[in-house]
Structures are given as structure tokens and as C-alpha cells.
């Protein structure tokens, strides 16, 4: 079938708006808006809208990006496991966000929803959805982990019981720092290559799953933030947060496929690297004190666990 | 020919000691010493000595590592451009350092010297030297750039006039952030695959070139530090330094072959990531004020230029 991407684009543009409105209400400071365009070309052309907040009341750095790009030729990295698509043109669109609150008791979060279409004249479009959301706390709270995973489960269970376990495991597997033998955070869901069937009905079902994930993000994250944002913290907590943020940088720059694809294919560096934290520390061979809340994050939360 | 690596190892171990002694004299605080061992295996076994200083008088974070590793099978990344070596065993040894001073007027510096031997029973060893040193200032000083490049040139000119221009350009090409279209710093020299001839004489000449680079580091860097360490600075300079350090992180985690090889092959993460700065900031689309010393760093120093 041929994909009319306008509906998906409308959903994504609206999702960006509603999430930013929700986050502005939480923070109190407006996000800036930075629209960009790149002329079409072999690798990547298109446009996007970045919404950013730095030095807010709640968020130290936050970015919510929408982008819609096209290219005349699928990049090598995207066809490595789908060689039949090499040489096709493509269209990709998505919303991607990373939020870094200042209060170390408030978790960092990432959410992304996207659609990819590979096109060739005279042939049917090849299309799929992808996305996910995952949470990276600096201090562990069981209630938050249950709320987060519960939101992920509810979003997917509406489409059948098989999705959540599969996408939860995919998230655990993907957001893993091999060189540290550590999960990035407490996980959530992650999916790619979602094309239930190449029919109108299969498209609708797949699109609906992506929407459920996108729509689940704000209420769940808002609940967690409202629960944690008034907790008092000091230098020690802030120090731990900045140290742990180093792991976020390591994951995004060494492992994250989206980041590396973007940087290597001539994407917009400042938009891509909005995922990096505002203030980060590295320290040699640091180990938190046994039994401390910092040690408990590692032992009780940064593990692969069924929270719901 | 068969390589007796003991002489090279002795030189490298001695170089680490003498550099650390020199840096301790500069800082006033002793480096800690962390010896490590990994059992031999298919990918990587060996031992090393890390010498580290954090929160010193001069250095906010500094690491000088010596390592000596062996493996039964050359890693894929090392045989990509030398397929004839696939399947050989190997021995690699080197000294590698990265120093991050606290004062933003003192530049960050990197130096590395190393030897690699690929072995197969019944066949001649294949060996080469590599290394280099490059400087990353936060504020540009022509006098420092001339001192640094002069030291590199003097070290190599002792072996013939052709080396310095070649290795200076290699450094410019290697330490380049493609996604930023920016050099990492003001350069220096970089070399790899140095095997003048597979003879006793060729080995001696190659080894001597590596030693010249290793020996040139301390006097040149010390001169620059002594010139800058008493300069007063404030929050603005410190802020700029932390922002620019983000580029160092981006280079090392996205592009640096040694870092990625180490992380992917099961190297010792905390040793490898001693190159990362202690405190780093990211900020959206930041541009220094036109005509400021910060802008001059970009326009007048972070360019490819013949300083001597």
C-alpha cells in the first residue's frame, strides 16, 4: 500500500504541542521555539521544530523536537538488516524528547515516537513505526517505577497482552551500557519495525500503538514529577546526579543508534545533542557507600525487573 | 624479524614514572597508583598501572596510564585495513595521558606512545609504533601554540625533515569533530603504522621516533602551564571551559578509535574514561560574543595552521 503520511505528521506535530504545553505548565517558564530547514539531498533534507528550555524552575535542560526528513537514498546504517531496501528513497518523522530536571529526586526521561517509510517508484511503500519511553532516576522510588511501568503496560495492553512484555524486554536490552554492565535507567518500553500487516487495517493498528505510547508519556511523567519536585536536596544529591548523568552521555554518544545516525548523516548537531545533560561530572572509580540511597539505586533499581 | 618487546616496555614504564614525577612537582599533590591485571583471553588480557590525580592544586583530573596487553586473536577493528593480519595473536603496549587543569587558561593535553606487534608461529612478527601529542586550549595564546608545535617539530626533525609536516597534518585530520566542523584543539602530531623497515635498523629508527615524541611532552607542556597557571579567572572563564570540554567528550566517545576499541573489546572502562573531563556543561546553540577571547579561540586558534 501507499502511505499518506500527513495524518501521522499531524498527530506528531500535535503531540509536540501538547507535551510542551504540559511541561510549560509544570515548569512555569516558556520553551523557546527554533524552527529549522535543510534543503533536500541524497542523505537528509527536511524541516523540524525544536522546543527547548534551559535554566527553568523545574528543568535544567529540556528539549522536545519534531522533525520530518526525506532522502533520495536510504542511509547504509538503516539498511544493514534490510538489504532489500538499499537504494530506496525514504521519509522519516518523529517526536523525540529528553528532559533533565534540576532536582536530583526528579528522574531524567526520554520519549520518542516515529514513522519510517521507504519508497520506490512502481513498488509498494515499506513502512514501520518505532518509539518508546524510558525513565532514568538518580534515586529509586518503587512507587514511581510502578507508576511508570504501569503507564507503559496500560498503553500497550489496550492493543493486546503480548505487546508490553515484548517491548519492555526490548527496552531493557536496548538501553544497556555494555562497557559498564549497567542498564541506563529503570526502562519502560522500546519498539521498532512495527508493521502489523501491510494493509490499511494493519497500518491503523500500528499507528494506534504508536499513539498510545506517545499519549501515555505526559500523565505518567507529570505524576512522578509532582511527587518528587518539592523534595529537598543538597550538594551530595546534586553531585550524585551529575555523576550519574555521565552514564547518560556515555550511552547516547557510544551506543544510541539515533544519535549516531544523526551525527554521521549530517543531522542538526545542536538538535541531536539536546539529549545531553547541562552539567555532568566524571570521577575515577566512584562507588557509593554501602546501604546508602545511592547504592540502592544501583542494587534495587538499575536492574531488569518486572515492576508491574 | 622477531621483536623483543622488553626494551620498549622498559622505556614506556620509565616514561610514565618520569612524567608523573614531573606532574607531581607541578601540582604538589601526589598521584594515586592503581595497578590492574586481566587474565589473558581471546580478546584482551594483560596488566597496567594507572596513575591518577583528582582535585589537585593544578589538575582537576589527570590520568597517566601504562598498559601492556596481549590477545590470541587480533580484534576486527584492528585488521579492517590490514586483512592479512586477521587471526594473528598480538601484543600492544603504551603510555597514554590526558590532563585537565582547573584554570581555564591552562590547556588540556593528550599524549600517547605505543607499540603493536602481530604474531604468528613460523612467521616474522609484524610490528609498528604509533602515538602523538595534541593540545586543547580554552583560550588561545600564540606563544603557547608556537612552543607546542615547536616541541613537536624539534622532536621529529631530529629524524629528518619529512616527519613533522606529515604527522602534523595527520593530527589535524584525526582530531577533528566532523559533526561540528571543528578541530578538537590546536593539534600537534599524530602517527600510526610506523615501521620504517622490517630490519633491526628500521626498528631502532622507528623506536627512536616514538621516544622523541614521548620525551618532548613534559618540557613543552610544563613551560605552557608555568606561563598560565597564575592567571586569574572568574565564573565566565570557568563556564566557557566547561562548555568547551563538552567537545572533548564528544570527540572521545564518538570518534576516538582507541576509546571505542577499548570499550568494545572489554578494556577497563575506568582507565579508558580517565580521558573525560571532571566537570562538563552542554548548552543549546551557544555562540560566544563577537570579538571576545572566547570567539578568538574559535576564529584564530581552532583552525588548521602552520604555527612554526
List keywords for this structure.
homodimer, 308 residues, alpha+beta, 7-stranded antiparallel sheet, two-stranded antiparallel sheet, 9 helices, 26% strand, globular
The helix fraction of chain A, in percent, is 40-55%
- Strand content of chain A is 25-35%
The greatest interface here is: A-B, 31 and 32 residues
Termini distance of chain A? 38 Å
Radius of gyration of chain A, whole Å:
19 Å
Q: What is the chains' assembly state?
A: homodimer
Rough outline of chain A: globular
Give the H and E element order of chain A. HEEEHEEEHHEEEHHHHEH
Name the structural class of chain A. alpha+beta
Unreliable sequence segments of chain A? none
The number of helical runs of chain A is 9
Q: What summary fits the major beta sheet of chain A?
A: 7 strands, antiparallel
Strand order across the largest sheet of chain A: 1-2-3-4-5-6-9
Q: How many strand units of chain A? A: 10
Average pLDDT, all residues of chain A: 95
Give the topology.
2 copies of one chain form a homodimer.
Chain A: H1 6-27, E1 32-38, E2 45-54, E3 59-71, H2 76-79, E4 89-101, E5 108-119, E6 126-136, H3 142-157, H4 163-174, E7 176-177, E8 182-183, E9 187-194, H5 200-228, H6 235-255, H7 257-264, H8 269-272, E10 279-281, H9 293-301
Antiparallel strand pairs in A: 1-2, 2-3, 3-4, 4-5, 5-6, 6-9, 7-8
Helix pairs in contact in A: 1-5, 3-4, 3-5
Amino acid at each position: 500500500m501507499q502511505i499518506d503520511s500527513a495524518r501521522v505528521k499531524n498527530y506528531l506535530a500535535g503531540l509536540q504541542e501538547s507535551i510542551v504545553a504540559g511541561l510549560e505548565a509544570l515548569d512555569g517558564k516558556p520553551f523557546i521555539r527554533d524552527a529549522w530547514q535543510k534543503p533536500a539531498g541524497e542523505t537528509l533534507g527536511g524541516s523540524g521544530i525544536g522546543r527547548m528550555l534551559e535554566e527553568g524552575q523545574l528543568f535544567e535542560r529540556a528539549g522536545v523536537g519534531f522533525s520530518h526528513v526525506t532522502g533520495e537514498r536510504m542511509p547504509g546504517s538503516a539498511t544493514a538488516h534490510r538489504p532489500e531496501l538499499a537504494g530506496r528513497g525514504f521519509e522519516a518523522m518523529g517526536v523525540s524528547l529528553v528532559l533533565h530536571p534540576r532536582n536530583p529526586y526528579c528522574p531524567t526521561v526520554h520519549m520518542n515516537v516515529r514513522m519510517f517509510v521507504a519508497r520506490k517508484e512502481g513498488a509498494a511503500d515499506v513502512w514501520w513505526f518505532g518509539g518508546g519511553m524510558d525513565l532514568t532516576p538518580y534515586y529509586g522510588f518503587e512507587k514511581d517505577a510502578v507508576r511508570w511501568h504501569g503507564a507503559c503496560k496500560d498503553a500497550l495492553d489496550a492493543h493486546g497482552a503480548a505487546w508490553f512484555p515484548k517491548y519492555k524486554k526490548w527496552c531493557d536490552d536496548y538501553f544497556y551500557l555494555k562497557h559498564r554492565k549497567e542498564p541506563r535507567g529503570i526502562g519502560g518500553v522500546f519498539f521498532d519495525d512495527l508493521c502489523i500487516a501491510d494493509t490499511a487495517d494493519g497500518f491503523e493498528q500500528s499507528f494506534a500503538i504508536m499513539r498510545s505510547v506517545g499519549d501515555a508519556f505526559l500523565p505518567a511523567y507529570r505524576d512522578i514529577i509532582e511527587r518528587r519536585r518539592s523534595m529537598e536536596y543538597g550538594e551530595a544529591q546534586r553531585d550524585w546526579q551529575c555523576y550519574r548523568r555521565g552514564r547518560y552521555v556515555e550511552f547516547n554518544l557510544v551506543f544510541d543508534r539515533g544519535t549516531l545516525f544523526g551525527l554521521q548523516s549530517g543531522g542538526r548537531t545542536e538538535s541531536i545533542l539536546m539529549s545531553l545533560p547541562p552539567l555532568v561530572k566524571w570521577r575515577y572509580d566512584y562507588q557509593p557507600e554501602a546501604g546508602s540511597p545511592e547504592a540502592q539505586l544501583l542494587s534495587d533499581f538499575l536492574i531488569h525487573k518486572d515492576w508491574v
